Every structure is written in structure tokens, then in C-alpha cells.
């Protein structure tokens, strides 16, 4: 019996993987891709399908693990966001040469905008560089369907295939038909062939030639050919070529405007079908709408007829919003268009949650090293910049390497600022360990604060290697951060509770004193994310704080320097207001007020 369900694009992708026989799905979380694996786990439990799901320590490990399953003949998938693909680039480039036996899908979720990323890079360019075919869904329904198409393409040509949803596909909802899944598992059967699977450079040249032949065949593969989605193809004047979520919007715009200009949707942007390129030579003007780079555009032989990214007709940055697409199609078709004026609603800058232990850690760092340089990383704790305790954010793991770089840069200065680096527990496992080893070898005098809130908080509370359970919630081994730090050769490694602010500040000062003479020092700031705590745990730790109206003069120090959402100044600016509805009861603000106006009371029930 077929069921209908409203699903996120990421959920639809997960269902498509299971429906198509995926036996191994491995990922590292990152918005907008995070829900793919968690949905895969939920659906496999709901449907009682015996498949493997795994959160890996980073994208490179995730890719390599899933790829081995495809080498053994299983259908597998790896999921990540676009910047995560950078981490997996090394195995990606090689795997395309070597090929696969079972179908292998690389899901790289792009973030045009960007909404929650360091860059709005286009994963299709990575696919083009790797010479790997890529499919571009326009909606949750098509994303789910594309999983099966990608596996067929992958196995037909024995090549990894990228599926590249964007934020608007991943996080849109659409009603899907969910017929029952008849799961037929394959048995792993790895065929030893060192000339292929362990190829030396001489054999890699042959593999490269084989790859070029595969690409030529993929450019003729009928199931992934562009399709007409609107308009009259007999017109020879103008045509519109679309890809990804822009296709869904363009299709609607053309129909709403009553245009008969043909609209062709490209579902395989690389390699672009050879016959399609030849077919488009019949049109005098071609508008290409795609996000974020002109990947389709650069594959056209005669670009003089093309209006797109490279010609400057379409913006090279940001999303193609529906109103952008309507504007571009109107101009291209010669119709007038008045862009709607959206209200200018002032935004509120993002801030750490009330009671977040990271806030206490950053406040302590500023107190312990007020004139320091503060390097940091990717995570919730990037918001430490609001507290003036984050000076640099480059990419995952870079905070440690940059701490070393700043320390070396100031080596010949008479006054050397202290350097304090912050990194999350999940990010430490992801890419912080090699950088820490390097600082030990060089005896770099800096302090690393590992913000251990016992989860991967920013992307949806996925487990870390220290959590003690896996993606399915089953018990697993727990890896000790302390033992890793000590194993790297660090001479100072101590744990502290950031909510005990005076002691934590003292611990940081102790670490700063140590590192001046003996190399890197590590402080583990350990307290669970409040969003991951149950009510009983919150009740046990709740500390009620009240504002003393006699001593509070509204100086605003706590509001400006601690920035807890529960604290604000009254309209007259005469005293601080503590909102009990937002207060989580961490009690840290009682240490922050220089006048002692935030007073702790006896523990109460909540």
C-alpha cells in the first residue's frame, strides 16, 4: 500500500537511497546536508531494513569507508555539505579514476547564499575537476527519484556519481508517495585486482584514458538527457536552459507569464550531453539559469549567443530567488517586470543560547588573557566573536594551526600577545588532532581550549567519537579526549567546568603560565549543551539568580560583555531585567556583574 508523506528534501533523498538498495550510508554532519543520514536511520528503523548507517569522524573517512563498500559490489552513499567535499577531495579525485563495482553516490549539498557556510562554492566545479558525472535535483521529489537514477548511472559506467542538492531542495518540503520497499541485500564480493585498485602512476594513465571514454558515453546516456519542461521547442529564436532549483522556479514563471519560449531542464550538468549542445545551436539567444557558477555555460561551444553568469547577465553570487528569475526571464523575453518591494525588516544578530557553556568559556578567556589573540573554528562557538573572544575563523581545524602561525609571527617581537585557540569537541576529532601534534613538535606556546559540550550541537546533536553511541543510538566505544591530547605529547591537559567561572579563569591562567616555558597547554571546557540535557538534569543544576535593585545602576556591563539573551536593560536604562522565561539557571551571570547585583538564591524546583 502506498503512503503519502510530507518530507524534507533530505528525507526524500534518504528514502530514495533505501528504495534503491543502499546498504551503507556514511556522513559527516553539516548544514544543509545533516538530516540525510538521520532520516536514513529513522526510515531504516521504521521499515526494519538491515542496513549500515554511520557518522564518521570527518568527510574524508566517510568517503573512504563508503567507497570501499562500493568496491566490494554494494550500493553505498556518502553525504556531506559543499565545504566538506574539500576535506574529501583527495580520495574523491582518485576514486573517479579507479571506478566502482557497486553503485556509489556522493551527495554534496551546496549552500548558495550562503546561509550557513564559509563559502557558496559550487560542487559541480569539483565534479568537473574530478571528471565525475553530477546530477542536479530541482525539488524533494526529484531528489528522491535521482538516487535510483544515480545508482543506475554509477553501475552502468562503473563510476562514482555526485548528487548535488542545494539548501532550497534540502530544506523544502513536498508530498511524496512512499510505496513499500522490497529490500534485496547484496553480498559483498571484492575482486582483487591490484592493477586497478592499487594502481601505480603507469596504470593511472590508462585509467585516465578509460575515464575519458566513460565520460563520452555518459554524455550520450539517454536517461540523464535534458528534458523540455515548458514552452514550444519548435521556436528557433530564444531558449532557456535551467538546472537545479532554478528549474522549478523558471518552469512556473514561464507558465504564469504565458510564454512559449522553450525551457530545457538539465538534470546532468556535467558532462553536458553532446547532442543537446548541438541541438541548442538552432537558437539565436540562450538564457542559462543555474546556481552558483556557470558550469553549463562553460560547456557551450559558442558562448556569444549565451546570456548567463560568464556574460554578466546573471549575477555570479548569491541565490537565484524566484523574483530574480522572474526579472531575468522578463528581460530576456522583452516583457516589462516590476520587482516587488519587500519590507526592510531589521535582523537580529545570532547569539549563543541562554545558559550555553561556551559563553562562560569565552568570558573566562577574555578575563584570563585580556590582550590575547583568539583563533577559533567552525561551530556554535564561532558566535564567540560577539563577546570579542574570536578573532579568526577560517575552516575546520584551522584555529590550532593559526594559533601556531600567530605565535611564530610574533616570535621576534618584544611584546608577545598570548594566543588562545578554541575548538569544539567534534571539530577536534574531525581535524584538530594533526594540527595539535604539529604544535607539540614545535613547542608552540599557546593555550588550546577544547569546548566539550558532549555533542555536535550546531548541526543537530549528532554523536561524537566520545559520545559512546552510534548513528542508530546503539552503544559504542567512547574515545577519551584527554588520552588523545596526552598521546599527542601535550604536557598540560586539565578539565574544568566553565560555569564555575572563578575556578575556570584560574585554570586558564595556570595554562597560560605553563605554555610560556613548556609549549602548548590544553584546557578542556566540559559541560553538556543544554539542548541535549533532559529536564531532570536541568532541574538538578538550576540556580536561580535575581537582580538586586538597590545595587544595580544599569551600567550594562553584564548585557554588553556577557550577552545572555535572558539579560536586558529596562526601557529607562536604569537597571537590568532578568527574563525568567529565557533564563536556563546556569548561574554564571552572578560571577559576571562587577557590583554583585546579580545574586544567587537557593536552588528551587523548575
Structure, briefly:
With 606 residues, the chain is of the alpha/beta class.
Can you walk through the features of this model?
With 606 residues, the protein is α/β, with parallel strands linked by helices. It has four domains: 3-222, Rossmann fold; 225-333, Rossmann fold, CATH 3.40.50; 357-531, Rossmann fold, CATH 3.40.50.970; 537-600, 2-Layer Sandwich (Alpha-Beta Plaits). The chain is built from 21 helices and 22 strands. The protein has a six-stranded parallel β-sheet. 50% of the residues are buried. The model has no long low-confidence stretch (mean pLDDT 93).
List keywords for this structure.
single chain, 606 residues, alpha/beta, Rossmann fold, 4 domains, 6-stranded parallel β-sheet, 5-stranded mixed β-sheet, 22 strands, globular
